[in-house]
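Researcher: Here's a chain I'd like modeled. Treat it as a single chain, no partners, no ligands.
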Amino acid sequence: MIKKYITLSLLILLSVNYALAQGNYRIIFPKSESERNQACRNCFSAFQQKPKEVNFTIKNDNGNLYFHTNDKTWFNSLFANDTDGIAIDLVSKDIYDCAIENIKTDQIRGELLRPVYASRLKSGLKSIGENSYRVLVGKLPENLKNKDVEYNMLFVGNKTLCRYQIIYDIEAYKWDLLDMGMYLDSISFKNVKVGDTEDESFQIKYKTLRFKIPFEKNKTQYSSEDIKPVYDSLNLTNFNIKTINIKAYSSIEGSLERNIELQQDRANSIAKAIQSYQKPNIKTSISSSENWVEFLNDIEGTKHENLKALSKSELKSKLVGSFSQDMEPYLKNHRKAVITLELERKDIYKVKSATELVGLFNSSMKDGNLDEAAQIQNSIFEKLKNKEVSPDILKNMEIPLQLKFINFLNNNSAIKYQLDQKQMIIVRNELENLKKLEPKNPRVRYNLVALKFLIWRHNIESVNDIKFKSEIYALKSFGIDKQLIDRMMINYHIIKSEKYMRERDYKNKDKSVNYITNAYKKVSLSDFDYFSLAQYLVYYANTDKAAELLTKKARSIDVDEDLLFYYLNLTLTDNELTKTDDYRAIMLNAINLNSSRYCKIFNAVEDGGVTFQLLANNDLRQSYCESCTN
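Model: Modeled as a single isolated chain. C-alpha cells:
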C-alpha cells in the first residue's frame, strides 16, 4: 500500500522579545531587538541559508534526548562559535490540563535542561546512517518519564536566546494536476480519494444521484412526497444502484444519544426502502451526527448570533421549552438525510467468463451488431476495473482499424492507459493513428491532449508550450465542453509555474499562480480538485490563498473529511483566525465527522499528534476540553 501522506515538520519561530529571565543557566534573554540581532548574527545566518531539504528534530531514545539532523555541514555552520549552543525545554501536557484555569504563559514553558555548547556538540555528533547524524543534548528527568512530553529547542548564540523552536508535526499530501480523465463513452476519471493521489485505480462513472430528505422532529419516518424524487429517478431500465451513502443529521437540541439513535433509524429506513427496489445487494454506508455547522451558519447575522459564543452544553441547556419553539424555523432545516446513490450500467453479460466475452465481442463486431459489441466492451471494462481479468484480454479483442470502429479503438486505448500509466507513449501512438483515421473525432483529440500534459510534465518528450496552448483551445471547435478546457488551462499553468520556478523566473511564475487563483472559480470542482489546488498553492507559499479556497468547503456539512482536516492543518496556528465564530463552526464540523481524529491533533508529537502545545491557544483549548476529555 502506498503511503497516503508524508510528514512535514513546520518550524514555527516564536518572538523572543521578553524581559531578562533569571536562573536559566545564564542564558541571556535580550531586552531589545538590536541586542538580539547583534548577538545572534551567526544563528540567523545559518537559518536563512538553510536549504529546505535540511531537517532537524529531537528524539527520545530510552530517556536520552538526541538532536538529529540530515546535514552535517549546516550543523557545523549553526554551531560555529564556542558560545553557540542548544538547550531543551521539556514541556509536559499536564500543564494544559482542562482543570487548570490559567495556563502558564512564560517563555520557558516547562523544565529547562542545561545548554550544550559547540565544542561538545561537534565532538559528540555521530553518523547513524546515510545523511543521518545525532548528538546527545540531555536526559529526560525521572519526574517526566511517564508523562506526555515534547521537546522545544532554544538555539543560543553568544549565550543569548536567538530562536525558540516548536515542532508542529502536520500531515501533508502530495499535490497533483486536476484529474482530466480519459474520454471513453463518457469522461472516465480515476477513482481517487482526497489525500490518496498515488492510487492508480479508476472507475467508469455513469451516473450519480443526490437527494436530501427532511424529517419531522422526533420522527423516523419520511414523507412519501419527499422520497418520490428518489423513486422517480430510480425508474431507469439501464442502471443498478451500486452504492448508497447516507449521511443523517439531527438538529442540535436534545441529548446526543437520542439524536444519534433517531438518525440511525432514519438512515436505516431509507436504506431498506431503496434496497427493496432491486435484487442485487447494494453496498451501504451510513453515518450520523448532530448538525452543528449548519445551525451556526444559519444564525449568523441574525438576532440570535450571540448564541455562537456559547459552549455546546450551554447551547443545549438553552434550547428547551419556549425558546426551542422560537428556534424551530432554523432547527427544522437541520433534520435531514443526504443520500448519494452511485449507479452502474446493468450488465447482462456479468456472469460470462473472459473467454466467452471476447468470443461474443469478436462475433458481434464481425456481424455488425455494434450496440451489442458496445455492451460487451463495457462488461469487459468492468471486469478489468475490478481486477477480475488480466489487461491482456484487450489484445484478444478484434477491432478492425476502420472509421466506423474508431470509438471502440479509442475506448480500448484509453482503458489500457488507465490500467497502466506506463503505457502512456504506446497509447499516445495508437491515438495518433486514430487521429489520422478521423482527424475531427472529439474523444481522440481530448485523450491526446490529456496524455500530452503528462508527457510534458514528466519531461518524457519536449513540448512546445505555445503550440500546446493552441491545441488545448482548439478542442472547443471539436465540441469539447468549455469546463473541461478550463480545467486543462489550470493544469497548463500548474506545469508552467513549475518550469518558471526551476528557471527562477519568479515574475512569470506568479502570473501563472494568479491565473489559477482566478480561473478555478469558473470551473466545477470536486473535493479532490479543491484538495489538489490547495496543495499547489501551499507548495508556492500561498497558504492564505489555500485556506481561503477551502474555507467555504470546510463550513459545508458534507465536506470530505481529509479536505477538512487539511484546512485545519493550514490554519490551527493562526491565533486570530481560531478565535472567530466561523472557525468554531469548522472545528465542530471536524468533531462531528471524526472526533477521534480531531482530538488526536492535540496529542504529543511522539504519539501521532500535531502538538499538544496548540492548547496554549485558549480557543483551541476550549474546543478540546469540550469535546475530547469526556
